[in-house]
Specification:
about 80 residues, mainly alpha, 2 domains, about 80% helix, about 0% strand
């Protein structure tokens, strides 16, 4: 089989597929999938990583503040609650 014949057959096959219902199905499936993904309200991996880093920083800061508060409570003189 020569190269020109193979290229001609490939071209005809591609043309046939582009006019077939399979092409319509592919286009409809892509549109449906895009619509589905848009409704899922997904975030990009980069945005997710930024949010993870932010949460980790805030967790560390919260732990630091909790420890500091515990130290202050331990060293503060005991006070009786005020009653009116």
């Amino acid at each position: 089989m020569n190269r020109a014949f193979a290229e001609e057959m490939l071209g005809k096959f591609s043309e046939l597929l582009s006019r077939s219902p399979a092409k319509d199905f592919e286009a409809n499936a892509k549109a449906w999938l895009k619509s589905l993904l848009a409704r899922m309200d997904l975030v990009e991996r980069q945005e997710l990583e930024i949010l993870r880093e932010t949460v980790a920083r805030h967790e560390l800061r919260l732990a630091t503040l909790e420890n500091r508060l515990a130290e202050l409570e331990a060293t503060a003189p005991a006070q009786s609650p005020r009653t009116s």
